[in-house]
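Section 3.1: Structural characterization of target chains.
Under the original work plan, the team committed to producing a structural model for every single-chain target entering the pipeline before any wet-lab resources were allocated. The record below documents one such target. The sequence was received from the expression subgroup and is listed exactly as submitted; it comprises 155 residues.
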Amino acid sequence: MRTVWFVSRLFTGVFAGFMVGVLVLEFSLRGAEGAVYTQVRLVELDRLDLLAAATLIPALICTGVVAVIGHRRGGSWVPAATVTVVLAAIFLLSAVVNMPINLDQADWRPDQVPTDWLAIRDRWQVSHAVRTVAALAGFGLLLIAGAPPRRPARI
């Protein structure tokens, strides 16, 4: 149980840190013209989706396992369950908003930026900011939640 708890915190923290890094990069691009923004997004889209999945999915699974085991043992399982819901909501928001935009932007060319690129950028960035705040809140909750529930003593 302690290993799963550690892995849950580790992947949730790495995911939250990754999200902050992307948020800083994206907000740094707010003043860039369409061609520059597009070029940077194409670089981001090369591998960053893989990193997001490689951190979010294990965080979600391990945190869910901690919640289920904690509930079965009668321990404090609510923080892990809450973070599991938060991570699932991040996954859902990503699938509904960010991933379709990513797929669309993968076909953009710096010399032919869509006329509505600013609106698309803003939608992606707002959604990403929401995901980042949620990821940080979830990680913070795991940090203050304390140790995982122990296995009951056998008599």
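The mean pLDDT is 93.
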